Amino acid sequence: MSEHGQFTVALSGGSTPRTLYSLLATRQFAAQVDWPHVYVFWGDERCVPPDHLESNYRMARETLLDHVPIPPFNIHRIPCEQEPEQAALTYERTLSTFFGNVQKEKSPLPCFDLVLLGMGDDGHTASLFPGSAALDEPTRWVAANYVDKIGAWRVTLTPPVLNAAAHVTFLVSGAGKAERLREVLTGPYQPDVLPAQIIRPTRGRLVWLVDAAAVAAQTSA
Ligand code: 6PG
């Protein structure tokens, strides 16, 4: 806000951030945010309509966005009611329009102030799943990604965009993630197997917010 009068964030989906979003929506925290200058995007989305139970947009809307005074036109969901590839192209245009207008330094990539990420128990992040094509995407900003493991399409920001962010924060909770988290943080670099490892911000700051259960495998090792 102080640097360029606005704050851009790409939200993560899944279940872990529900508590974070609900807490941020409480008066104590919401009152501290200059919502009219906050611009919300998503790091990934399931290929379902925006009112679907599985929608990351719906989850964030229900837990946070419906409860804070953020202008609707500041909210840029991934339009997954479209076919996956079309949704990716549409979102890429959304990013290009928004960041093309605001990044005076004409950075070739959108530079989010914050990208919030989770990590699956298989080491995936956003919708970059092990062995999936989007992991190796060198230039596109948004990719439609078929995930064999779940037999479904996803739309995801790609590693170049995720790594262009000024701040990337992982939020990881629970014993079920502990072993994988240990491998991601201390094991050999193998992003095709552990996609969370591909997150290495080019200039930005990477922070892992983890609970005791999620780091148990490291403290006991
Ligand atoms: C999604 C998320 C995904 C999520 C992990 C962890 O669309 O599901 O973006 O990357 O962060 O799967 O999910 P949980 O928080 O539910 O464990």
Quick synopsis:
With 221 residues, the chain is an alpha/beta fold. The protein has helices spanning 16-24, 27-30, 56-63, 84-102, 159-162, 178-186, 216-220; strands spanning 7-11, 38-42, 44-46, 114-117, 142-147, 152-157, 167-172, 205-210.
Q: Care to describe what's here?
A:
With 221 residues, the chain is an alpha/beta fold. It has a single domain (7-220), classed as Rossmann fold (3-Layer(aba) Sandwich), CATH 3.40.50. It has helices at residues 16-24, 27-30, 56-63, 84-102, 159-162, 178-186, 216-220; strands at residues 7-11, 38-42, 44-46, 114-117, 142-147, 152-157, 167-172, 205-210. The strands form two sheets. Strands 2-1-4-7-8 form a five-stranded parallel β-sheet, with helices on one face. A three-stranded antiparallel β-sheet has the order 3-6-5. Strand 7 (167-172), helix 6 and strand 8 form a beta-alpha-beta unit. The longest helix is centred in the middle third of the chain and has 19 residues, at 84-102. 37% of the residues are buried. Bound molecules: 6-phosphogluconic acid. 6-phosphogluconic acid (6PG) binds next to strand 3. 6-phosphogluconic acid binds next to strand 3.
